[in-house]
């Protein structure tokens, strides 16, 4: 390319000639993205991560990741002359003596809470709309790993200030590590560099928190976004939207403006919260001392479900086998419960694909009601997660609502098993009911509220048929049916190989798709629309269209549909 | 007056009148509401008056001679400090039985409380109501108090005294509104589920340090809004309700012009 045929101004052209970025950016700027507010949830996560990076860099300038002891002589009167680690002292100095330090700390922490909350909300959107289906299963796993890395980033950061609360969290972590049979004590000594708490953990966590985890998160965010571009964005179902097109607006200028503006909104909301609300007031908790714990000691919300699982598990589960203690009361809540929750979440796309037997690509999203088992499974998982979070907050619930903490714990113990099942059932019935409602609407149209009496004395309500767009939304989905498999024996009575495997798959498939509501077929629609005598009443919708299209005077007058059959005539 | 009369139909007039009425009511209440005064040394008259109050209000449960019944413990030897704590915080007389006796607006004024305390103190030796000097926060060292509080109190009362849950519906109350005298008396007498921190365990000077620490937390200059100081649970709640709530609201707004 020479300067003469370049469409770019000076400096940009200089860059373009040396990198050839121009054509790539041109293509990219014209990329079409569909528009919906729920597609911005992932952006909240991305932007809050940027805020975390910016504020985090500021914090590293002042934070001292060291467990060496020092005596405090700073601005905070309640800590004068108290012996503490350098990590804790530098956190106090950051809060009270570094200009803007407290605001930065609070921005960093609020952004972390919102980062995790946005990831979870984004995952919910992807899950309930079925955006994880082929070809996006791998990207779901990338997102899942990002969520786990977010937990790791949050936990390692929460532990850095070396206050009582974070020390309590580390103590629990140490307990969980120790609960592992055989390797537990070795692993604990390995992590802490000796007996808990030791003197090495904070520097180690610092490296994990500022280098390892953020590096991995950045790399995976790159991969995650690359996949979004590669696969193209999914779109909600609607008239004209298919798996082979993308209906939306170009990246430039529409989304550059929207997304760019949204970054500042996210940053603004986080900064506002940080300026208005205290978060993690380490000066209240004081420097870590293994002998201390205060009431209301909890982890940040995204770890609270683990705390809840620990609080719910009865201590009697600890068993002694041949002189060795096996602390099932720790292993079950701290490893089995999150293991089940996380495995179910990560593996779900593959389980569903297995049950559906569907190998096609999907770019149009599902309405949650149209896949009842998936929706119910998601709600059940969230219910379990929510119950565990509430169980982790049981002491706060007890004091705020004046309840007995023992009763709350007993109720949650039962609810943890009953709640998800109940939620699954309720959600599934609701989905099926909504689907039937959709069928009803498509077949019979909207209720108009006008009742007509026939000469015979029969009453009917006039319905207006749905328009094309409304109908598309309600009939364009696919109701999967359970997989059908070849019989166990062939025509000669020979047992077929692989029958048992197929049978298992069929069972899973039946679990998913046994109960279903099929979309209305054109034949059913045609049948429903010929109601014989009832159609003798003029369809009000056409009436209305007719009236609306006639301009009267300076504008349009909306006139209520008038039945062409007068009551008197009907009674004849 | 004429200018005032002319403006009485102004559309803001009702608002102004309401504000003035509220201001007057509030001002009057602040001026006339019963304050807390400290009674002087008890006299024989005080003891006699306290005895009468006791017979009328307390003897049903604590017995006619304060020797205790099936419904209430003996008060012989609990001392004036225990009476002052229970009565001045409104815990006694008790309104209803429950997991724990609840603090409420006190039934008796400061004089009557002092008379009751004098009567109970006359039944047997017990800890006395601390003097103003003993509970003066300015004479305590808040850093020592912080260490003492975290070691002895925070596991029930939370790191800054926001309160916490105990078993079976009992709780350690929040300390934000407790007066220095009440805090001192609670340590000294160990009401309800609270252990007694006698003067060998936590010396009077150390008690004053704890008071200094707690009082210092109330004028905490850094907290814009401490969200109740309940820790990560309330922070998480606000991150979801306010943070994600607002951001989703903004996302809906940005996506509103969609197809």
Keywords:
heterodimer; A: mainly alpha; two-stranded antiparallel sheet; 21 helices; 6% strand; globular; B: 259 residues; mainly alpha; Cytochrome Bc1 Complex, Chain D, domain 2; extended
The CATH superfamily title of one domain in chain B: Cytochrome c-like domain
Report the principal-axis shape of chain B.
Answer: extended
Strand percentage of chain B:
under 5%
Q: Report the top-level CATH class of one domain in chain B.
A: Mainly Alpha
Helical content of chain A stands at 55-70%
Can you give the mean pLDDT of chain B?
87
Mean pLDDT of chain A: 88
Main beta sheet strand tally, sense and closure of chain A: 2 strands, antiparallel
By DSSP (H or I, 4+ residues per run), the number of helices of chain B equals 11
Number of strands of chain B: 2
Oligomer: heterodimer
Radius of gyration of chain A: 31 Å
The low-pLDDT segments of chain B are 35-39
Radius of gyration of chain B: 25 Å
**CATH third-level topology of one domain in chain B:** Cytochrome Bc1 Complex, Chain D, domain 2
Strand order of the largest sheet of chain B: 1-2
CATH architecture of one domain in chain B: Orthogonal Bundle
Structural class by helix and strand composition of chain B: mainly alpha
**Largest interface: chains, residues each:** A-B, 77 and 62 residues
Q: Can you offer a commentary on this structure?
A:
The complex is a heterodimer of chains A (about 575) and B (about 260). With about 575 residues, chain A is mainly alpha-helical. Chain A contains 21 helices and 10 strands. Chain A has helices spanning about 10-20, 20-30, 40-60, 85-95, 100-130, 135-160, 165-180, 185-190, 200-230, 250-275, 280-285, 305-310, 330-355, 370-390, 395-400, 405-445, 470-475, 500-515, 520-530, 540-550, 565-570, and strands at about 30-35, 70, 85, 250, 320, 325, 445-455, 460-465, 550, 555. Among the domains of chain B are: about 45-125, Orthogonal Bundle (Cytochrome Bc1 Complex, Chain D, domain 2); about 135-220, Cytochrome c-like domain (Cytochrome Bc1 Complex, Chain D, domain 2). A two-stranded antiparallel ribbon of chain B has the order 1-2. In chain B, helix 5 crosses helix 9 (about 180-190) and helix 9 packs across helix 10. The longest helix of chain B is centred in the C-terminal third of the chain and has 23 residues, at about 230-255. The N and C termini of chain B lie far apart (about 60 Å). At the A-B interface, helix 3, helix 5, helix 10, helix 11 and helix 15 of A face helix 7, helix 8, strand 1, strand 2 and helix 10 of B.
């Amino acid at each position: 390319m020479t300067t003469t045929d370049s469409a770019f101004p000076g400096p940009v052209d200089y860059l373009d000639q040396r990198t050839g970025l121009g054509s790539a950016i041109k293509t990219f700027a014209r990329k079409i993205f569909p528009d919906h507010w729920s597609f911005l949830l992932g952006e909240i996560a991305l932007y809050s991560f940027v805020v975390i990076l910016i504020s985090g860099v500021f914090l590293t300038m002042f934070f001292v990741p060291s467990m060496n002891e020092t005596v405090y002589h700073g601005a905070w009167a309640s800590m004068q002359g108290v012996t503490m680690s350098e990590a804790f002292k530098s956190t106090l100095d950051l809060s009270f003596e570094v200009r803007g330090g407290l605001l930065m700390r609070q921005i960093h922490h609020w952004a972390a809470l919102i980062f995790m909350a946005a990831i979870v909300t984004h995952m919910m959107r992807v899950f309930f709309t079925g955006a994880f289906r082929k070809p996006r299963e791998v990207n779901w796993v990338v997102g899942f790993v990002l969520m786990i890395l977010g937990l790791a980033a949050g936990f390692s950061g929460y532990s850095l200030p070396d206050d009582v609360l974070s020390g309590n969290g580390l103590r629990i972590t140490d307990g969980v590590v120790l609960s592992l049979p055989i390797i537990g004590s070795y692993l604990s000594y390995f992590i802490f560099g000796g007996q808990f708490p030791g003197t090495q953990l904070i520097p180690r966590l610092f490296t994990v928190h500022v280098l390892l985890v953020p590096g991995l998160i950045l790399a995976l965010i790159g991969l995650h976004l690359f996949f979004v571009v590669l696969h193209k964005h999914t779109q909600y179902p609607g008239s004209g939207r298919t798996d082979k097109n993308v209906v939306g607006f170009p990246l430039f200028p529409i989304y550059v403006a929207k997304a760019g503006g949204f970054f500042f909104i996210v940053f603004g909301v986080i900064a506002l919260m940080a300026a208005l609300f205290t978060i993690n007031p380490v000066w209240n908790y004081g420097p870590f001392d293994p002998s201390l714990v205060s009431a209301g000691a909890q982890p940040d919300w995204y770890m609270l479900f683990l705390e809840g699982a620990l609080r719910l598990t009865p201590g009697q589960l600890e068993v002694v086998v041949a002189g060795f203690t096996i602390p099932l009361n720790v292993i079950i809540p701290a490893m089995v419960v999150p293991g089940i929750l996380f495995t179910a979440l990560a593996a779900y796309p593959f389980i569903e694909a297995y049950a559906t037997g569907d190998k096609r690509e999907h770019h149009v999203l599902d309405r949650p009601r149209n896949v009842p088992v998936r929706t119910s499974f998601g709600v059940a998982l969230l219910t379990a997660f929510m119950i565990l979070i509430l169980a982790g907050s049981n002491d706060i619930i007890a004091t705020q609502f004046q309840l007995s903490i023992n009763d709350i714990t007993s109720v949650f113990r039962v609810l943890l098993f009953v709640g998800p099942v109940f939620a699954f059932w309720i959600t599934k019935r609701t989905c099926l009911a909504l689907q039937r409602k959709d069928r009803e609407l498509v077949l019979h149209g909207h209720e108009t509220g006008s009742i007509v009496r026939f000469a015979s004395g029969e009453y009917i309500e006039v319905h207006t048929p749905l328009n094309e767009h409304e109908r598309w939304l309600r009939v364009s989905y696919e109701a999967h049916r359970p997989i059908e498999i070849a019989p166990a024996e062939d025509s000669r009575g020979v047992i077929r190989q692989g029958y048992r495997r197929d049978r298992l798959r069929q069972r899973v498939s039946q679990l998913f798709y046994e109960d279903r509501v099929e979309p209305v077929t054109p034949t059913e629609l045609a049948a429903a629309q010929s109601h014989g005598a009832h159609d003798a009443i003029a369809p009000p919708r056409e009436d209305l269209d007719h009236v609306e299209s006639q301009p009267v005077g300076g504008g349009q007058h909306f006139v209520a549909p008038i039945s062409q059959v007068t009551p008197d005539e009907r009674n004849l | 007056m004429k200018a005032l009369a002319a403006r009485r139909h102004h559309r803001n007039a009702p608002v102004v009148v309401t504000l003035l009425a509220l201001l007057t009511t509030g001002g009057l209440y602040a001026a006339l509401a019963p304050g807390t005064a400290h009674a002087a040394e008890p006299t024989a008259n005080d003891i006699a008056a306290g005895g009468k109050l006791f017979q009328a209000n307390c003897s049903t449960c604590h017995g006619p001679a304060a020797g205790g019944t099936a419904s209430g413990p003996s008060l012989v030897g609990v001392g004036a400090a225990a009476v002052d704590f229970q009565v001045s915080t409104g815990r006694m007389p008790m309104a209803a039985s429950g997991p724990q006796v609840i603090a409420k607006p006190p039934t008796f004024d400061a004089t009557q409380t002092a008379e009751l305390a004098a009567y109970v103190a006359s039944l047997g030796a017990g800890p006395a109501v601390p003097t103003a000097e003993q509970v003066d926060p300015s004479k305590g060292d808040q850093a020592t108090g912080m260490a003492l509080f975290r070691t002895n109190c925070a596991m029930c009362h939370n790191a800054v005294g926001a309160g916490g849950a105990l078993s079976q519906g009992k709780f350690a109350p929040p300390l934000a509104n407790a007066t220095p005298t009440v805090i001192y008396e609670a340590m000294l007498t160990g009401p309800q589920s609270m252990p007694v921190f006698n003067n060998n365990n936590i010396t009077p000077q150390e008690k004053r340090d704890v008071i200094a620490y707690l009082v210092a937390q109330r004028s905490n200059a850094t907290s814009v809004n401490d969200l109740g100081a309940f820790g990560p649970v309330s922070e998480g709640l606000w991150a979801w309700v306010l943070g994600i709530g607002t951001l989703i609201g903004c996302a809906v707004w940005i996506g509103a012009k969609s197809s």
